[in-house]
């Protein structure tokens, strides 16, 4: 299978997971609960329109007015005074998010009703009362939920400009949407917008006449501010129904408003446009919250009543939409809170009146949180999934994790930009929580963990011969790398003594002990032959100093083998190690019958030769000069230059001893004396070298390299090398 085909398959699989994460309800809720919260968190608070003001009935006002903190029991005379004060200051609309369904003191009721009627711009709240009722359906008893609108008392209802419900869910459901219409009736934000826009109704009717004259013959041209609430509701219902029947009509009206000549012909263009968009919305929309509680301009109730009624207020209410309701600054006093993306850690939620004001402000700004249309949403999921498949399968392995991070940041940046700019809501959780991790893991499995090895035992051999013949192997990659070769001393004799049932678990424990140092130091096992392994460190995989990591792994292997031999004295496996550094090629090797992914090149063969040199020198860990040069953290002693079998160029060989911090004074002096004796040998002073190595052995005991050079010095005293000899020991 070609890489292109793999990329397409991985991309389609990733896209399918994105679809499932969207359509399965428990997973789809992540987007509403988590994705939207991320976008609000990244965006932060934004400025609310100055035209919207909230007057809060709160603990502070209760204390100042000397009333109990039970706002539903406040004298209604206060509300009447508040309405008259706001009307006097020129408020465009006054919306109460308070229930007035109980008759109270007749005098105060009359005062409040007269104030409402005189203002002519008050919208009163009617709440929805739910009750359950048992009904017979298909011969069976079933329980249904019935919602009933409960208006204010008739005295207030007849005086108000209009009545409107505003249903909101309670915790644990997070409020992210607001109803614009309920039972076909405008809710509080839309009703408030209708009253707010009344000064421009003449322009709206003229606009409608220009676009659809036949639809409004029943409407009068001179819409008066004191029209009754049924007329307002009728207008809203008529326009909403007409906009739903003809989806192009709102666009036609808005296009006419955007005409360059419109400013001279229509007043309040933005307000008329807001009303058209509000009435052409579906029944609900996603709220674009402005920030934590009290981000919208908020004034305590008592401040409006406290100032001299004969002088203007410090705050101007002229042309403002004023919402009155319960809202506290601290959680313990909160009576009307709703769980939102801006609910505070201390438990303080956004109040119902602030949510209503937010919905009104969104309508006035002609902006809300707008999810992508479903076809476009699925298209984004599809393109993102396919893009991930191609991106991860064509990216080098070392760049996969950084690439995934860059993709996440890039996608989130685009989502943040669109959300901050115009409230457009790109899907976030499906692409980032499900698709991206799946694409990354899938690419790792398919490219580097050889997924066919997992399912190979379950399919016939002929299928895998066909698969390997037709599939495209990962392209060969050239890099600087280190090969570490190991071999077990006298393994053949051990294998003869042990039965197969005992030998196999013994080898498994041995390999486990030496594999761990390789993996923990960033290498990978490229080959296993009998008791020998070949491990690889390559720059395309690791960004650390691979030479140091390989040397530390060799020292760790030596310790692990010593511990293994201590635990199994009946079957010790002394191990020799050789390391070499240079250019390697990593790729598939073999034929259609059998392919293996491994490293090839001179470095691999040379590492094996260096490992074999341990036999001659009586050492455990040998390395070439290319590996050890410049590594201050590793202590090694030079053993001379050797020309190994199958290689023309000589190698400077070092014995890897320990970490530099582990060197003691005795070891340092010994290596210094050995190096001095080696220089005497290389200067062809055979007798002097013979005495130097004999003295080392006498003082420090058995040492393989010293014994080797002692024997070689004896040989060269009898049969010296030619005069052209440069100190290289030819083992070929």
Automatic annotation (TrEMBL):
<protein>
    <submittedName>
        <fullName>Adenylate/guanylate cyclase with Chase sensor</fullName>
    </submittedName>
</protein>
<dbReference type="Pfam" id="PF05226">
    <property type="entry name" value="CHASE2"/>
</dbReference>
<dbReference type="InterPro" id="IPR007890">
    <property type="entry name" value="CHASE2"/>
</dbReference>
<feature type="transmembrane region" description="Helical">
    <location>
        <begin position="425"/>
        <end position="446"/>
    </location>
</feature>
<dbReference type="Pfam" id="PF00211">
    <property type="entry name" value="Guanylate_cyc"/>
</dbReference>
<feature type="transmembrane region" description="Helical">
    <location>
        <begin position="376"/>
        <end position="395"/>
    </location>
</feature>
<dbReference type="GO" id="GO:0009190">
    <property type="term" value="P:cyclic nucleotide biosynthetic process"/>
</dbReference>
<feature type="domain" description="Guanylate cyclase">
    <location>
        <begin position="482"/>
        <end position="611"/>
    </location>
</feature>
<dbReference type="GO" id="GO:0004016">
    <property type="term" value="F:adenylate cyclase activity"/>
</dbReference>
<dbReference type="InterPro" id="IPR001054">
    <property type="entry name" value="A/G_cyclase"/>
</dbReference>
<dbReference type="InterPro" id="IPR029787">
    <property type="entry name" value="Nucleotide_cyclase"/>
</dbReference>
<keyword id="KW-0472">Membrane</keyword>
<dbReference type="InterPro" id="IPR050697">
    <property type="entry name" value="Adenylyl/Guanylyl_Cyclase_3/4"/>
</dbReference>
<keyword id="KW-0812">Transmembrane</keyword>
<dbReference type="GO" id="GO:0035556">
    <property type="term" value="P:intracellular signal transduction"/>
</dbReference>
<feature type="transmembrane region" description="Helical">
    <location>
        <begin position="400"/>
        <end position="419"/>
    </location>
</feature>
<keyword id="KW-1133">Transmembrane helix</keyword>
